């Protein structure tokens, strides 16, 4: 398989936080959803990928190079959206388009105008008069208008209303119809990722908990409801987390097919990405 991004043992130590030995791969032609709680290390990981911070250890290969800082051609092929706006506050969209022509060799003014209309961005206002959602849409419009092959988006859809979020998710799905295009998208909104992601990488306290195909996760994981006294009879190797309540236990398992082969008496319910994450983080 061809990969757009490969992280191998990426480590970064801050005073009160460390990214520990982070390794995962983003296959070309796919959307990878990157999830984790506030402060789990998502932005730090994305910055390490883009060489915006210096890693203590590890290696990142992005679009085939591990020297992104020296490779302007590769930089041109990456569209980046972080949650802060990086456009000058006194510019309007027409002025931004003129500037971008000098930043990107492949700047597409007509495509940019199309996104400006689609995202209903006001052309008569300057950036400082934009709402935070408008600023986010502007960043996404720019990222999509220079023939990028890879989009790296940090919480890019989080501040947007459901209608425009849905439109943008459809644009992302369209973008990866070209199998050379890839998206790495961090988000708290797991329903968005359930809609568009092919793979999910979950980071918790600076460490990767899993990086797997979304369909496999949903197909393999499930929830067993049982009485507390039945818990010890379940094969431990399948158990990811347990939550007890006044009626009994909910048990997240990671191989429902095998468990059902071993225990024909059990019923295993289907689950969601959100539930898997909650069990991993908050399960006993
Ligand atoms: N430059 C820095 N110096 C010291 N600590 C930092 C620095 N940048 C980030 N951190 C710490 O690293 C941890 C992870 O931050 P990061 O922004 O990567 O999390 P995140 O998963 O993106 O969170 P959120 O979902 O809230 O954006 C936090 O505890 C943060 O305070």
TrEMBL record:
Alphabetical UniProt keywords:
ATP-binding, Nucleotide-binding, Transport
Which GO molecular-function terms appear in the entry? ATP binding; ATP hydrolysis activity
Q: Which residues form the ABC transporter domain?
A: 5-230
CDD domains linked to this entry: ABC_DR_subfamily_A
Keyword Transport, does the record have it?
yes
* SMART domains to which the protein is assigned, alphabetical: AAA
Task: State the protein's name.
Answer: ABC transporter
Q: Which organism is it from?
A: Anaerocolumna cellulosilytica
């Amino acid at each position: 398989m061809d990969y757009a991004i490969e992280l191998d043992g990426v480590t970064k130590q801050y005073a009160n936080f460390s990214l520990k030995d982070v390794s995962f791969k983003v296959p070309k032609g796919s959307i990878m959803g990157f999830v984790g709680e506030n402060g789990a290390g998502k932005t730090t990981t994305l910055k390490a990928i883009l060489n915006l911070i210096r890693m203590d250890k590890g290696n990142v290969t992005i679009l085939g190079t591990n020297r992104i800082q020296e490779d302007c051609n590769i930089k041109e092929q990456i569209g980046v959206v972080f949650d802060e706006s990086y456009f000058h506050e006194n510019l309007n969209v027409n002025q931004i388009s003129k500037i971008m022509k000098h930043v990107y060799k492949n700047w597409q003014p007509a495509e940019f105008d199309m996104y400006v209309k689609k995202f209903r961005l006001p052309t008569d206002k300057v950036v400082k008069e934009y709402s935070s959602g408008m600023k986010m849409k502007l960043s996404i419009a720019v990222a999509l208008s220079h023939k990028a092959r890879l989009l790296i988006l940090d919480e890019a859809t989080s501040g947007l209303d459901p209608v425009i979020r849905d439109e943008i998710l459809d644009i992302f799905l369209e973008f990866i119809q070209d199998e050379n295009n890839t998206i790495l998208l961090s988000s708290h909104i797991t329903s968005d990722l359930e809609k568009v992601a092919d793979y999910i990488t979950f980071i918790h306290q600076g460490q990767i908990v899993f990086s797997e195909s979304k369909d496999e996760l949903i197909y393999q994981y499930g929830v067993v409801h049982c009485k507390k006294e039945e818990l010890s009879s379940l094969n431990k190797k399948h158990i990811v987390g347990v939550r007890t309540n006044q009626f009994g236990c909910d048990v997240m398992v990671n191989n429902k097919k095998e468990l059902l082969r071993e225990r024909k008496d059990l019923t295993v319910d289907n689950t969601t990405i959100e539930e898997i994450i909650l069990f991993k983080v908050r399960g006993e």
